[in-house]
Design a protein that fits this description.
Strand order of the largest sheet of chain C: 3-2-1-4-5
Helix content of chain A: 25-40%
CATH class of chain C: Mainly Beta
Order of helices and strands of chain A: HEEEEHEHEEEHEHEHEHEHEEE
Structural class of chain C: alpha+beta
Chains: A alpha+beta (335), B alpha/beta (363), C alpha+beta (76)
Oligomer: heterotrimer
Distance between the termini of chain A: 29 Å
Number of helices of chain A: 8
Number of helices of chain C: 1
Largest sheet of chain C: 5 strands, antiparallel
CATH architecture of the largest domain in chain A: Alpha-Beta Complex
Number of strands of chain A: 15
Distance between the termini of chain C: 43 Å
CATH topology of the largest domain in chain A: Phosphoribosyl-aminoimidazole Synthetase, Chain A, domain 2
Radius of gyration of chain A: 19 Å
CATH class of the largest domain in chain A: Alpha Beta
CATH topology of chain C: SH3 type barrels
Number of domains of chain C: 1
Strand order of the largest sheet of chain A: 10-12-8-13-11-14-15
Helix content of chain C: 10-25%
Number of strands of chain C: 5
CATH architecture of chain C: Roll
Chain lengths: 335, 363, 76
């Protein structure tokens, strides 16, 4: 492992996984595979439990803000674990000098999103650090929720089989591009909004009405590529996706072409991948497309028969290439 | 998107691939010189569309990969100085210098290193930070050098004295000639379309003339690349090597005269080191004396200690298509993606990097 | 090397243009091209317009292919 932590350790790619596996999970004796939420037993009931920290620059961006993000992110981690999110905690680390009115805008946004998602923010903590000791404001949220059904497992990919289809609920990469555009240092502006949204109503509906859902995961930092690579190693199967079916909005494509980014690797905050058995594909698509958060849902590929396979993309021209695990954050390139 | 989607049309690429299969008789080895082509070939899975006899190999065309580690070491030293902001293209951020030390690591240790999209953004950084010295890392071939030159002209004209450039700009033809000189099994070059957009296709004429190897100046979309392969096959089959322009929507024989003039006004040629290929005469661009006060190397003199490479890197032979990574004593040992020795390991698309990543993990 | 894509010029102010790539707007220096006008397509590389684009969407490749494929049809 590296001698120092670099930004790549926080990118949700290979380096993040190495750090978690080799340093944290080993010391904490955690159960493998690591999933978005832990499933623990409380008084005979299965409860999902998760936590996440939010650091983002800028804290207000087109389509959301750090507060909304902090609620959605934790709600989504619970939701894709098959739980109904119930209670959330909120801890703030605030830099000295931070404007109170911005803090109150963040709190209002969190409250609004909690109502949206149907969760309650019930506990929290506030710490203030000296000027320059943190970048404006960091938020940590943790959350719990009860599993929708006893024994429901859509996180470990244990039931995933060859021929199962992959469905994504909409366009890829909007969050990354909206945030980069509003950061202003790469001199581009874009009409794209962050897709930041709570997906729990959608997942509850999917899991209540369909029996063939074998895996769900929200697509965050490492993008679709990160999740598919993790899925492939969890279920020990290859995955084939079709480039022509991937939903990507035009301004996101434009930004990617120019900056040398691949939408497969861009972060999302309101997207999930659903792995479903073939005969329930239409049902899942119907449910997704009848919801504003799934209007652009698309079948993007399937689980291959090969064991221990890789993630393969069939390109627009019918060529094939391997989609690797992300290596660090994507940097804009000129070549 | 206009001028993009039309060239990615499946029907069009299928038809081109069919024509290639029909035309191909025997084996052909073509080199794409440009890293952008290498990336596009991988991105669109072009290899899997071609018949077995056609081999595409990657040349020395990724400017950061061929940048000697001494340049990264020098930037690291500058980054460590007080009141210095390093501005660079994202490409350069992870390129390792001596001991695997990159600018990304320098930033993690507290240096002010900023990624910019353009030399003009670096210039704005200088305007906005008058108390700091803003050093722009000039990398790239003839496509990129005019932009650096334009920023230097503005800094000179407006007397933005805290804007400086360290130039590792390079030009393409001498490197292509270096590959050819020592013998090669190549049957043709897929030539860099965006370099030629500036220089014109004329810079490649010496290759068919002196070395009997065909050159097709190619665009970067799948249909462009496939058509260029087809054109090269026809040249080989007819035994008539010449310089042809496939990418005629932007490339002419003479190129962009304005850009060439800007580039020549600011830069002059010099000998320079290419990672894996060694010193190549007349292949680099240094800042002319007139612009000396914006030349970081003459304004801020520092001592740079570059660690020597252990053993002999055969990158040059790999680039020439003469040997394979497994023939190299350093491969997978002293030279690996974390601490690469030659350009073929530095570049994610490089032959050694790809071998290391896929062949090793497949056992 | 040299990542560069076709963008459309939206407006020009002095030596600087605002250009669109699929709706995302970049800034382009015009120091290296002559006579660029709003509506023109130019290649954008590292923040500079480096060349104007002249073409009809792949039409040249299409007609070339038609020519190549024609003899086939005659044989059939």
């Amino acid at each position: 492992m590296d001698r120092f932590v670099t930004l790549n350790h926080g990118s949700g790619g290979r380096q993040t996984n190495d750090l978690i596996r080799e340093l944290f999970a080993r010391n904490f004796a955690m159960d493998m595979p690591l999933t978005d939420s832990a499933i623990v037993t409380f008084g005979g009931k299965k409860v999902a439990f998760t936590t996440d920290s939010y650091v983002i620059d800028p804290i207000f961006f087109p389509g959301g803000d750090i507060g909304k993000l902090a609620v959605c992110g934790t709600v989504n981690d619970l939701a894709v674990s098959g739980a109904i999110p119930g209670y959330i905690s909120a801890s703030f680390i605030i830099e000295e000098g931070f404007p109170i009115d911005e803090l109150s805008r963040i709190a209002e946004s969190m409250a609004r999103e909690a109502v949206n998602a149907g969760v309650r923010i019930v506990t929290g903590d506030t710490k203030v650090v000296g000027k320059g000791k943190c970048d404006r404001i960091f938020i940590n949220t943790a959350g719990t929720g009860v599993l929708l059904r006893e024994g429901l497992d859509v996180s470990t990919a244990s039931a995933v089989k060859p021929g199962d289809r992959l469905i994504v609920n909409g366009s890829l990469g909007n969050h990354s591009i909206a945030v980069l555009g509003s950061r202003n240092n790469l001199s581009f502006t874009t009409p794209v909004l962050s897709d930041c949204a709570s997906l729990n109503h959608l997942t509850t509906k999917l899991l209540s009405e369909c029996n063939g859902i074998r895996f769900m995961r929200d697509l965050t930092r490492g993008g679709l590529a990160g999740v598919l690579n993790e899925l492939s190693s969890m279920c020990r199967r290859g995955i084939i996706i079709e480039e022509t079916t991937l939903p990507v909005d035009e301004p996101v494509r434009g930004a990617c072409e120019m900056l040398g980014f691949d939408p497969l690797y861009l972060a999302n905050e309101g997207k999930l991948i659903v792995v479903v058995e073939e005969n329930e594909v239409l049902k899942v698509l119907d449910i997704l497309r009848s919801d504003p958060l799934g209007r652009n849902a698309a079948v993007i590929g399937e689980i291959a028969a090969v064991e221990k396979g890789k993630v393969i993309l069939t390109t627009v021209t019918g060529g094939k290439r391997i989609v690797d695990m992300p290596e660090g954050v994507q940097l804009p390139r000129i070549c | 998107m206009k001028f993009i989607d039309g060239y990615r049309d499946r029907d069009l690429t299928d038809r081109l691939a069919r024509q290639i299969r029909k035309a191909a008789a025997g084996t052909y080895t073509f080199m794409e010189v440009c890293g952008g082509h290498t990336a596009a070939i991988r991105r669109f899975g072009i290899h899997s569309l071609l018949p077995e006899g056609i081999r595409l190999i990657s040349g020395p065309g990724c400017p950061v990969c061929v940048t000697g580690k001494g340049f990264v070491d020098r930037l690291s030293v500058y980054a460590g100085l007080k009141d210095v902001i390093i501005t660079l293209y994202g490409d350069l951020m992870r390129i390792p210098g001596s001991g695997g030390r990159s600018l990304e690591k320098a930033r993690a240790e507290g240096a002010d290193v900023r990624i910019v999209f353009s030399s003009l953004d670096a210039l704005s950084t200088a305007r906005n930070n008058p108390g700091k010295k803003v050093i722009f890392a000039g990398i790239g071939f003839e496509t990129t050098a005019p932009g650096t030159a334009a920023a230097l002209q503005i800094a000179y004209r407006e007397n933005i004295s805290n804007f400086m450039v360290i130039s590792a700009h390079k030009i393409m033809p001498p490197a292509m000639e270096a590959i050819l000189k020592e013998g090669t099994r190549l049957n043709g070059f897929i030539c860099p379309g965006h370099v030629a957009a500036i220089t014109g296709s004329g810079i490649f004429d010496f290759i068919p003339r002196n070395y009997g190897i065909g050159c097709v100046v190619s665009g970067f979309e799948p249909a462009d690349i496939l058509l260029s392969v087809l054109m090269l096959i026809s040249q080989v089959n007819a035994n008539q090597p010449s310089t042809e322009i496939q990418y005629n929507r932007v490339v002419t024989e003479k190129g962009n005269l304005v850009a060439k003039e800007v580039m020549n006004e600011v830069f002059e040629s010099c000998d320079t080191e290419w990672r894996g290929l060694g010193l190549i005469g007349g292949s680099g661009l240094i800042i002319r004396k007139k612009y000396e006060r914006h030349d970081a190397e003459s304004v801020i003199q520092v001592k740079v200690v570059e660690s020597p490479d252990d053993g002999h890197c055969i990158c040059g032979d790999i680039l020439r298509g003469l040997r394979e990574p497994s023939d190299c004593g350093l491969f997978g040992k002293a030279c690996n993606p974390g601490e690469p020795v030659g350009a073929c390991m530095v570049s994610e698309e490089g032959t050694c990097h790809t071998w290391h990543k896929y062949r090793l993990s497949d056992g | 090397m040299c990542l560069s894509i076709p963008v459309r010029i939206i407006e020009i102010e002095g030596d600087t243009a605002r250009v669109s790539a699929g709706g995302t707007v970049f800034t382009a220096g015009l120091q290296l091209v002559q006579d660029a006008k709003p509506g023109d397509y130019v290649l954008l590389h590292a923040g500079f317009a480096i060349q104007k684009i002249t073409d009809e969407e792949a039409s040249e490749i299409l007609s070339l292919l038609d020519e190549m494929e024609d003899p086939d049809k005659k044989q059939e």
